[in-house]
Amino acid sequence: MSGTRILDTLLALSLVLEADQTRELERRGLTASKTHLLWVVHHRGPATQAQLAEALQVTPRHVTTLVDALEATGFARRTPHPTDRRAVLVDLTDRGRSVMTAMTAEHESLGAELVRGLDAESVAVAADVLDHVLQRLQTLVAEHEARQAERAETS
User: Is the pLDDT of residue 45 over 70?
Assistant: First the structure.
């Protein structure tokens, strides 16, 4: 398989995954950004908005907007920090926990279905290849960004 074929397959995969994700999240009244925040809180536990901004690599203002929307729809809530009276923690509501538990189960089920029919060795090789491709893509993107920034500085 050529590099171009791999890239084309990855692009097709990303389109299918994005369309499916968007459909499923809309069905639940969520967006990718809101779900990312819920996913972080679900897996790491209650967090301050500053911690969430860092984890999501977004501005604190963006987190405030997301938490406001998640509170309004009953997925998350703000609670007082137990040791810092100036801070609040973002935590999941029962609805948020229920949705995240269901989404985790669906995530695991889809992962299992994707490799059904492959032996363990093939799955391991595929995972290694995908990890390599991801790392190479991240490196190439970073190098491209650095070249673009360099060009902008010299212009």
Answer: yes
